[in-house]
Amino acid sequence: MLSRISAAACCMALAALTAAGTSSALELPLPPPGEDIVGEVQVIKAKYEDTFAAIGERYELGYSELVAANPGVDPWLPGEGTDIVLPTRFILPPVPREGIVINLAEYRLYYFPPGKSVVYTYPLGIGREGWSSPVATTKITAKTPNPAWYPPASIRAEHAAEGDPLPAVVPPGPDNPLGPFKFNLGLSAYLIHGSNKKFGIGMRVSHGCFRMYNHNVLALAQMVPVGTPVRIINEPYKLGVSGGRLYLEAHAPLDDQPQQTSLMDKHAAMVNMLLASDHLTVNQHLDWEVIRDIVAAEDGLPVEIAEPQAALAGEFNSAI
Fold first, then answer.
1. Distance, CA of 47 to CA of 105 (rounded, Å)
2. Is 7 left (phi over 0), alpha (psi -120 to 50) or beta?
3. Distance between alpha carbon 155 and the CA centroid of its chain, in Å?
4. pLDDT in tens, 136-180
5. Cα angle: 270, vertex 276, 278; to 5 degrees
6. What is the distance between the alpha carbons of residues 132 and 217, in angstroms, rounded to a whole number?
7. In whole angstroms, what is the distance from residue 52 CA to residue 177 CA?
8. What radius of gyration, in Å, describes the C-alpha atoms of the chain?
């Protein structure tokens, strides 16, 4: 039987890195046909002054995914020398690998540039409860550097009720919540844009738009043309194959009433997804104990959940 804990620990041990500097994106080579996993988990040592917000910006991760991957670690004061798991291994979303794909449940955007065997992936801030980001298929309709912000009436009314009135127009600059660049979508009132608040990346904080680190949105602006397709999905559970083995990645489902979603409901959703999946074959043996642990943990780390029957037979024969 596979051990979820040992599998994750083994993966981290093989990929433990102490990275340095800030990159403009996670640029990852696409796997060969029939495979679905990119990147590697990393483990770093926290510095005295580190917070999860600072680590996230440095390694292209959002706040929530760092919290999920490091249970029990204080996100505001991890402590010098504390091991921090960087969840930089991903099962690619279960949609065509083209254009922009946003998976709300993992607070993450994937960009598949045409003609290149790479994927760029960035953390996002998404719509908060009551202002949820939509699930939709659309496209990039316009690109604007240094945008002004024209807050809609609904947002102006909300701010006025809180004693924080907004002007009709917020000009470009450090106080502009759109940051240095915006992409218009073919969805009225929804944008992909930068932000003047770094902390909100990887959280439910916006009025439905998609917030990015400013250096990320500027990098994306250099690559993505108008007309690029955009798919917005909400998939907390992703299945993928790597090296002939089946993996599962689980994130906390987005739910405006989370108290009504029990662990049993989540297990049922997972079973239904597995039964409907094209990845599952008669030659695989599922480890249901590991699957239950993954669904309960919701840590965003891809973990092996099945071995080919041939491998199991080999282990059995060697044992006897």
1. 29
2. alpha
3. 27
4. 999 999 999 999 887 777 777 776 777 777 776 778 888 888 999
5. 115
6. 21
7. 22
8. 21
Report the predicted TM-score, pTM, of the whole model to 2 decimal places.
0.85
Length of the chain: 320
For residue 58, what are the contacts with CB-CB under 8 A and spacing of at least 6?
21, 22
**Number of H-type helices and E-type strands within the chain:** 8, 19
pLDDT digits (tens, 9 = 90+) for 301-320: 999 998 654 443 333 233 33
Domain ranges of the chain: 95-234, 237-319
Sheet of 229-233, strand order = 26-29, 118-123, 108-112, 99-103, 229-233, 136-145, 181-185, 191-193, 210-211
Q: Do 235 and 94 form a contact (C-beta atoms < 8 A)?
A: yes
What does the alpha-carbon distance between residue 161 and residue 153 come to, in Å, rounded to a whole number?
12
Residue 308 confidence (pLDDT): 59
Q: Is residue 223 within a helix (H) or strand (E), and if so which, with residue range?
A: helix 214-223
Adjacent-strand bridge partners of 28 = 119
End-to-end Cα separation, the chain, in angstroms: 17
What positions carry a catalytic annotation? 193, 209
Q: 25 by DSSP, 3-state: which? A: coil
DSSP state at residue 196:
S
239 Cβ contact partners less than 8 Å away, ≥ 6 residues apart? 36, 91, 94, 246, 247, 248, 273, 274, 277, 279, 280
Q: Does domain 95-234 have CATH number 3.40.50.1110?
A: no
Average pLDDT over residues 75-103: 96
